[in-house]
Amino acid sequence: MRAINPIIAALFLIAAAVIVGVAYIGWSQTWFASTSRTVDLQVTGEIVRTSSSAQLNLQIKNVGTVKLNITKIVIEVSDDTASYTAGGSFSSASISASSGTVTLDFSSNPISLDPGSIVSGYVNADSANAWKSGAKYIITIEFKDVDRGTTLTKTVTIQA
Predict the structure, then answer these.
(1) 59 and 110: one domain?
(2) Dihedral (CA of 158, 127, 124, 53) sign
(3) Which domain holds residue 96?
(4) What are phi and psi of 33, to 5 degrees?
(5) Does 144 share its domain with 81?
(6) What angle do CA 137, 141, 142 make, to 5 degrees?
(7) The total number of structural domains that make up the chain
(8) Which residues fall within 8 angstroms of residue 120, CB to CB, at 6 or more apart?
(9) Tens of pLDDT along 15-26?
């Protein structure tokens, strides 16, 4: 019985090493998207001001691959003495204002976002000074990864 040629055996070993190396790099670089998990939100907002009031319109999209629950939205404001109301998808929130922020608390009724889904809501202020023209305001969204229970935040800046 004859053995395999040493040159052919070496070529098989080199080919196997290259295949394993490419597979490892692909896995580590998340080229195989079907096995990777991503958790992220895309937030767009607009502040609309009139002579007597102001309104912040927010649209939040789950651009990740896992289901998320929004539990809190904290919005920076210029006038925390104004009266704030929420509507759209934010109407179930408990609202509080203090120290230059308005907090929408959804802990008792979180907003559920499947991958690719979008929610829209607004916060209305009875004062035009709630968000001053030309100023930038920070919005922080707290959300949970439903599968793992991890609490994460997304912070965006919106200009009035």
Answers:
(1) yes
(2) negative
(3) 41-159
(4) -65, -25
(5) yes
(6) 145
(7) 2
(8) 57, 58, 59, 60, 88, 89
(9) 999 999 988 887
pLDDT higher than threshold 70 for residue 118: yes
Residue 76, classified by CB atoms within 10 Å of its CB into exposed (0-12), middle (13-18) or buried (19+), is middle
pLDDT higher than threshold 80 for residue 85:
yes
Q: Look at residues 76, 94, 98, 46 and name the one whose alpha carbon lies nearest to residue 155.
A: 76
Within 29-146, strands assigned E span 41-49, 54-62, 68-76, 84-88, 94-98, 101-105, 111-113, 118-125, 136-145
User: Given pLDDT bands bounded at 50, 70 and 90, which one contains residue 36?
Assistant: low
Tokens of 101: 């922020």
Q: What is the DSSP string of 1-42?
A: -PPPPHHHHHHHHHHHHHHHHHHHHHHHTT--GGG-----EE
With a threshold of 0.70, does the pTM exceed it?
Answer: yes
Residues 138 and 96 reside in one and the same domain: yes
Phi and psi dihedrals of 29, rounded to 5?
-95, 10
60 and 13, same domain (yes or no): no
Cβ(108)–Cβ(114) below 8 Å:
no
Contact 28, 96 (CB under 8 A): no
